[in-house]
Automatic annotation (TrEMBL):
<feature type="compositionally biased region" description="Basic and acidic residues">
    <location>
        <begin position="448"/>
        <end position="468"/>
    </location>
</feature>
<keyword id="KW-0134">Cell wall</keyword>
<feature type="compositionally biased region" description="Acidic residues">
    <location>
        <begin position="415"/>
        <end position="429"/>
    </location>
</feature>
<feature type="compositionally biased region" description="Low complexity">
    <location>
        <begin position="430"/>
        <end position="447"/>
    </location>
</feature>
<feature type="domain" description="Gram-positive cocci surface proteins LPxTG">
    <location>
        <begin position="697"/>
        <end position="731"/>
    </location>
</feature>
<dbReference type="InterPro" id="IPR043504">
    <property type="entry name" value="Peptidase_S1_PA_chymotrypsin"/>
</dbReference>
<dbReference type="InterPro" id="IPR009003">
    <property type="entry name" value="Peptidase_S1_PA"/>
</dbReference>
<protein>
    <recommendedName>
        <fullName>Gram-positive cocci surface proteins LPxTG domain-containing protein</fullName>
    </recommendedName>
</protein>
<keyword id="KW-0812">Transmembrane</keyword>
<feature type="region of interest" description="Disordered">
    <location>
        <begin position="354"/>
        <end position="487"/>
    </location>
</feature>
<keyword id="KW-0964">Secreted</keyword>
<dbReference type="InterPro" id="IPR019931">
    <property type="entry name" value="LPXTG_anchor"/>
</dbReference>
<feature type="transmembrane region" description="Helical">
    <location>
        <begin position="704"/>
        <end position="725"/>
    </location>
</feature>
<dbReference type="InterPro" id="IPR001254">
    <property type="entry name" value="Trypsin_dom"/>
</dbReference>
<keyword id="KW-0472">Membrane</keyword>
<feature type="region of interest" description="Disordered">
    <location>
        <begin position="668"/>
        <end position="702"/>
    </location>
</feature>
<feature type="compositionally biased region" description="Acidic residues">
    <location>
        <begin position="380"/>
        <end position="396"/>
    </location>
</feature>
Length: 731
């Protein structure tokens, strides 16, 4: 069922979290006839207020205000805004649908069994639990068998095999084909919301309402890898061969761009829905509340879709959530969008008591850095041993000197020449001992110098690591991202890629070159705007920190021209029969997002019995827009048109992966419609005598009058589609 979530009247408030429980604290009394202020810091006060509202589908306590989202507010719910100055009720917030939910279809990367049937879901993030065992994080509703009629749980699904990547919908396949590698494992933990919230129910969310699950992986069949695939190697059935990022930690999302990988839509990137997230913490997903945050995408180009449930949502190397559900919606500006709800991972882990590590506990220690440190320690030990040995030799030399001294005492009775000889010998030995000490000191100093250098190399002080940036494809105005040393300056330079020579026609047509310096954050992440013009660019990036500059990292950025959003507007969607048969009224259809001069065709693909199929082709204007007007010709028999009509719009330049724009409208009896009857008769409109007694012959030619008045933006072009219908037969 199609859902719209937010009206254009959404207010912006600051974000804060809401927990349940606690004691009620009354707000100070104000004037008897004025609203009070709800103490939103009191969980009990918030809960008591929510209990008075009906059909709550979302709520959030943000910046001293309580916002309640309902599909349609009744008198009691509306009264809350009168009772409290800081309570706002937003209508039009409907229940979302969980992807791969009731019938367990969809998913990304792994299959599940549910009795005689089954389905698929997406893996979120791989790692190890507190005991060092391999696990996969995903969505909790993937583990549930849900009765389609009642919405109640009927047990848990069984984890099956991974899905063969080359057959997944993300790369144009039908999916549901096993890899043959064996069953992944079993559910270790799963939870999907709390109490069922059927239509009209007053059930409210609990603070542990999450959509989260853990799969215990069979290590004998699968190895876990911490990165997230970019789906570019699906054709080779090896998703681990090319990663969009390596995941190193779990964290809270930040407003801005997020990415997701899933088996239905592959790798996608869109913006978090700030206006929504500043108001709501919990959303009703298939009858159960889920804590998380929203992401919005252009209509028809979703961030996620059915089958992406459980798919990993991330920012850089940080895991921030898994896909829970979504559907069509309207944003705060009244624009149609595709909306996705993400179960935030940090919150889910906290409430579930689960944990994940992205460091392999089974990796052979030590790592590279540890090996260098151990090597340095070993060198120090050898130097120490060598020094001790040298000192031992010196001690022997000292013993010899003592012996010599005794001999010298003994020779005091002897001739002076012998004593002088003895003294010379002692001096020679002393010189030799000093030389030995000097050699040992030099050797120790040399060894220490080498050790210092080895230690310095191991610490990374001698050589600054180059930035980590891979080849990227972005749209005009998009972001280039990478990773380098934390809190450092990264300089990026670029020029057109290829063999264009300065001054040549190719170089003159190519985008301009340039450079920019950006700073990394505390985690080392950085981003910068891509060049404004479409094309291929050769980039070079260096990082500077502590007075040192790294070697350059070279990569390629491909900038694609931003595609105009395709959109179909049908106005009105419901029309009275007597208005439908008037040329200057009827139904106006506007299609946007085509190329200038492109032939665009509208077809009436379905309608009430007796309607003749009809199609009309028209040329898109300079803005890529084309309009059509649909009306009936039998003005003397308007009730003959009652019913629903489905239309489809396609462009001559459509590619295989571009879907037709679809829409519908309904003709209703005058007593049920928004007009009809004698509307417009005062202006002398024809009541039906001009159609030749119900002739089935359609009118032809361009009909711009009604279209221009209805759409406003069409200056040229347009076409009229005329529906004709046989008269109803009287029994």
């Amino acid at each position: 069922m199609q859902k719209k979530l937010v009206q254009s009247s959404l207010a912006l408030t600051a974000a804060t979290a809401l927990g349940l429980g606690g004691a009620f604290a009354a707000s100070p009394a104000v004037a008897d006839n004025g609203p009070q202020k709800l103490n939103v810091q009191s969980d009990a006060a918030v809960q008591k207020t929510l209990d008075k509202a009906s059909g709550v589908n979302a709520y959030g306590a943000k910046n001293g205000k309580l916002t309640i989202g309902v599909e349609k507010a009744d008198k009691t719910t509306k009264k809350l805004e009168q009772d409290f100055s800081n309570v706002k009720v937003v209508e039009g917030v409907k229940e979302l649908k969980a992807y791969a939910g009731n019938d367990l279809v969809g998913g990304a990367g792994y299959l599940v069994k549910a009795g005689e049937g089954g389905g698929a879901c997406s893996t979120g993030f791989s790692g190890w639990d507190a005991d060092g065992k391999p696990i996969v994080l995903t969505a909790g509703h993937c583990a549930k068998i849900i009765n389609e009629q009642s919405g109640e749980f009927e047990g848990d699904t069984t984890v099956d095999e991974t899905e063969q990547p080359s057959t997944a919908p993300a790369v144009g396949g039908e999916g549901f084909k096993q890899t043959g590698l064996g069953v992944i494992g079993s559910w270790g933990y799963n939870k999907f919301g709390g109490e069922l919230v059927p239509p009209g129910s007053d059930a409210q969310p609990n603070d542990d309402d999450i959509d989260f699950a853990v799969i215990n992986v069979d290590a004998s069949k699968y190895n876990v890898k911490t990165g997230v695939t970019d789906w570019s190697t699906a054709g080779d059935d090896d998703l681990a061969a090319k990663l969009a990022t390596d995941i190193t930690k779990v964290g809270a999302h930040s407003e801005g761009t997020v990415q997701k990988a899933g088996r239905t839509t592959g790798l996608t990137e869109n913006e978090t829905w700030t206006a929504y997230n500043e108001q709501f913490d919990f959303v009703n997903v298939s009858g159960r509340f889920v804590h998380g945050f929203g992401v919005k995408a252009p209509s028809g180009k979703p961030f996620s879709a059915p089958g992406d449930s459980g798919g990993g949502v991330f920012q850089g190397d940080t895991a921030v959530g898994v896909i829970s559900g979504g559907g069509p919606a309207e944003d705060e500006n009244g624009q149609e969008i595709d909306f996705s709800w993400v179960a935030d991972l940090d919150y889910s882990l906290e409430k579930s008591g689960q944990s994940i590590s992205f460091t392999d506990p089974n990796e052979e220690p030590p790592g590279d850095d540890e090996a260098e440190a151990d090597a340095s320690a070993a060198a120090d030990g050898e130097d120490a041993d060598a020094s001790a040995a040298a000192e031992g030799d010196d001690a022997n030399a000292s013993d010899n000197a003592d012996a010599d001294a005794k001999e010298a005492d003994a020779s005091s009775a002897a001739e002076g020449d012998d004593a002088e000889a003895s003294a010379d010998a002692d001096g020679a030995e002393a010189d030799a001992s000093a030389a030995a000490d000097g050699d040992n000191a030099d050797a120790s100093s040399s060894a220490d110098g080498k050790d210092d250098k080895a230690d310095s190399d191991a610490d990374g002080d001698e050589k600054l690591e180059a930035p980590k940036v891979g080849d990227q494809t972005v749209v005009e105005g998009g972001k280039i991202t990478g990773k380098a040393a934390p809190n450092a300056d990264v300089k990026l330079t670029w020029k057109p890629a290829g063999d264009a020579q300065a001054g040549s026609a190719q170089a003159q047509a190519a985008p301009a070159e340039g450079s920019v310096t950006v700073k990394t954050d505390a985690d080392g992440n950085f981003s910068t705007e891509a060049p404004a013009e479409a094309g291929e660019y050769a980039y070079s990036a260096t990082v500077t920190a502590n007075g040192q500059t790294s070697e350059a990292t070279n990569f390629t950025v491909t900038v694609r021209a931003a595609e105009a959003e395709r959109k179909l507007t049908v106005e009105p969607k419901e029309i009275a029969a007597s208005d439908f048969v008037k040329e200057d009224k009827g139904v106006q259809i506007t299609a946007e997002g085509f190329e200038e001069g492109e032939k665009v065709t509208l077809k009436v693909v379905d309608g009430p019995e007796g309607v003749k199929d009809y199609e009309m082709t028209q040329t898109a204007n300079a803005e890529g827009v084309v309009g059509f007007s649909i009306y009936g010709t039998s003005a003397s028999n308007p009730e003959a048109y009652l019913g629903k009509y489905d239309v489809q719009v396609t462009g001559a330049n459509d590619t295989e992966d571009e879907e037709a724009l679809t829409g519908s409208f309904q003709v209703v009896a005058d007593e049920d419609g928004n007009g009809g009857g004698n509307d417009g008769d005062d202006n002398g409109n024809d009541d039906g005598n001009g159609d030749g007694g119900g002739s089935d012959l359609p009118r032809t030619g361009a009909e711009l009058t009604g279209l221009a008045a209805g759409a406003g933006l069409l200056l040229v072009g347009g076409a009229a589609v005329v529906l004709t219908m046989r008269r109803k037969k009287n029994n």
